[in-house]
Inverse folding.
């Protein structure tokens, strides 16, 4: 409109016409306009524009506005609490409300279905998932029937296995059943052994129990407590099968040990151990191994008899070389079984004779004010290296995350982002129109 | 252009919008400004007559405010009604440090923006088309349509500054406060809007065939 080489800017000419200048500025600009044709033309131009705009007439407001506002004013005067808006709800808002209501209903229905479905699924957890195979024991021909109570359950939930051996054309056959799940153990056992087993169990005066105790004690002085423990073991004729002492810097000292004491001394030993400090955890358990032991004894006896018969057979009968070698092989095998069973028997009897105590002693931690083991420069260096390592791990973690989740995020970005962007663009365009 | 005192009598004050009769002349305007605040305070104190006086004074200007920015007269009336109701409810919080006029138009602008956001949202997600121009009730629908189309071609902010200056008669400072713009920005935008509108008004009117659809009116 006007060249900007004048001492007065076009905006100032406009501001003068709008009355927005101070008196001094107005005088200055007016004086310039009086002598400048270009600025005077601009001022006239601005006047014409305003004149044109003034022809844009708005019709008078209707009387309904006045009525509505009067009602609202009267209501406000009588009820100071904020009134609800009287804005007419257009069809768009009504649609949105419908959507919101429908959405809430859909979510509620889905939640109910989810709860009901989950409940049904949980309750339909059929027993078939847990293996409980119960078969009725039928005694083999010629065998005494086994009373029900002989299907024993060992304390602690061990599976009970019984095998009944039936004679077959091959000489030996086995039939087994099991109760409570677990693998079936096929065992070759003659009816004689079975009878002996039954008689052994019937005549056994008391059950054989392998006891074990677990103790966690907090002590004030680990050294003194250790000495007291060793004295205690000596008194009760026990011994330490395994002992470990931890003395890390900045940590409380602790002692972990596996002790053995005679079964008869267990109660007294435990009572004395409780006095070493504050007991935090105590667990006692007993595993009945009567059946195990009796089974071992019977099998051992059977194997010895078998070995004896085989040796007699080897000594008395003569036959082909092959047959002789077979018998010798069988004797070796039976001998190996006997030695293994004897070892198992000793271990089992030792477990019964000597109870196991898993003891853990922890010293109350006291922070020391002494010099640190690591020097200050070393600590600073260690911290710096650790920081670098953490930073490296963080960057690596970010990189791995991007590589791992990147493709998935990209797919979702395309799926959601493109429609979202288009909707946003349309929304902006619509806003600009208004 | 200006109804207030000018330094030079050779620049006469422009005739005000004839329908905005409630905008008084210079001297009375100063009194009315003071009276507006006093009326508002009186209404806040419980005098309902004071609000009635304010309503009579501003019903047409406020309607005109919305009417020039919206194509639908019914919506303009509705929003004017909402504005007065909002003034009713916020009377207790009115501070006499602010001019009543600024207070009123600030509420009007907020209501207008909210209305535009809702309309844009409905148009985007529900496919509703914006209302077309309703020439009913205009004394000169051609002028109305022409002005709306010219205004629609201005920058959004420039347009708002121009309307507030030309029709609501707000000062540069009041416009700056309402639109949250620096004073110099208001001045430059107003000049730009007037220059652009001058060129638009001088431009030849586009020819339109009878079968061509009417241009969407933008206030």
């Amino acid at each position: 409109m006007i060249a900007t080489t004048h001492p007065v800017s076009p905006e100032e000419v406009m501001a003068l016409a709008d009355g927005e200048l101070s008196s001094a500025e107005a005088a200055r600009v007016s004086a310039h306009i009086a002598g400048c044709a270009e600025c005077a033309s601009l001022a006239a131009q601005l006047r014409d524009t305003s004149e044109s705009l003034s022809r844009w007439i708005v019709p008078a407001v209707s009387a309904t506005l006045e009525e509505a506002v009067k009602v609202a004013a009267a209501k406000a005067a009588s009820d100071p609490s904020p009134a609800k808006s009287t804005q007419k709800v257009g069809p768009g808002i009504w649609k949105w409300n419908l959507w919101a209501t429908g959405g809430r209903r859909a979510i509620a229905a889905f939640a109910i279905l989810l709860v009901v479905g989950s409940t049904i699924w949980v309750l339909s957890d059929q027993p078939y998932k847990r293996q409980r195979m119960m078969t009725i024991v039928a005694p083999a021909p010629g065998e005494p029937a086994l009373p029900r109570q002989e299907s024993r359950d060992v304390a602690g939930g061990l599976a009970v296995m019984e095998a009944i051996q039936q004679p077959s054309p091959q000489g030996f056959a086995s039939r087994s059943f099991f109760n409570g799940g677990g693998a079936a153990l096929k065992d070759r056992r003659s009816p004689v052994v079975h009878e002996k087993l039954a008689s052994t169990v019937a005549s056994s005066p008391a059950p054989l129990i392998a006891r074990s105790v677990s103790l966690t004690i907090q002590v004030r002085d680990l050294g003194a407590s250790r000495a007291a423990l060793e004295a205690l073991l000596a008194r009760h004729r026990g011994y330490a099968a395994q002992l470990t002492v931890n003395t890390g810097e900045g940590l409380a000292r602790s002692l972990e040990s596996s002790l053995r004491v005679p079964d008869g001394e267990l109660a007294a030993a435990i009572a004395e151990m409780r006095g070493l400090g504050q007991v935090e955890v105590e667990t006692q358990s007993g595993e009945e191994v009567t059946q195990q032991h009796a089974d071992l004894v019977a099998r051992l006896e059977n194997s010895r008899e078998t070995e004896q018969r085989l040796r007699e057979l080897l000594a008395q009968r003569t036959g082909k070389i092959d047959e002789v070698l077979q018998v010798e092989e069988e004797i070796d095998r039976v001998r190996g079984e006997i030695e293994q069973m004897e070892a198992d028997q000793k271990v089992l009897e030792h477990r019964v004779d000597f109870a196991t105590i898993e003891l853990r002693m922890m010293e109350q931690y006291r922070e020391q004010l002494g010099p640190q083991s690591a020097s200050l420069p070393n600590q600073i260096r260690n911290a710096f290296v650790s920081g670098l390592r953490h930073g490296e791990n963080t960057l690596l973690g970010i990189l791995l995350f991007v590589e791992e989740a990147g493709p998935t995020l990209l797919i979702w970005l395309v799926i959601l982002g493109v429609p979202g962007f288009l909707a946003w663009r349309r929304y902006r365009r619509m806003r600009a129109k208004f | 252009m200006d109804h207030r005192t000018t330094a030079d009598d050779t620049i006469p004050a422009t005739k005000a919008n004839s329908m905005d009769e409630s905008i008084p002349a210079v001297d009375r305007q100063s009194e009315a400004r003071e009276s507006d605040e006093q009326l508002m305070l009186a209404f806040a104190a419980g005098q309902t007559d004071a609000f009635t006086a304010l309503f009579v004074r501003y019903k047409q200007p406020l309607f005109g405010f919305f009417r020039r920015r919206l194509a639908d007269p019914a919506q303009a009336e509705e929003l004017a009604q909402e504005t007065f109701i909002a003034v009713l409810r916020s009377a207790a919080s009115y501070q006499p440090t602010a001019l009543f006029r600024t207070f009123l138009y600030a509420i009007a602008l907020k209501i207008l923006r909210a209305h535009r956001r809702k309309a844009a949202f409905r148009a985007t997600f529900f496919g509703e088309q914006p209302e077309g121009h309703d020439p009913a009730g205009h004394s000169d629908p051609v002028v109305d349509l022409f002005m709306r189309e010219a205004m629609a071609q201005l920058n959004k902010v420039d347009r708002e500054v121009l309307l507030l200056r030309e029709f609501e008669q707000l000062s540069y400072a009041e416009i700056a406060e309402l639109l949250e713009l620096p004073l110099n920005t208001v001045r430059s935008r107003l000049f730009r809007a007037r220059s652009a509108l001058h060129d638009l008004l001088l431009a030849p009117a586009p020819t339109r065939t009878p079968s061509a659809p009417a241009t969407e009116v933008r206030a």
Notes: The CA atoms of residues 176 and 184 of chain B lie 9 Å apart. Chain B touches chain A through 74 residues (CB under 8 Å). The radius of gyration of chain B is 18 Å. Residues 100-125 of chain B form the longest helix (26 residues).
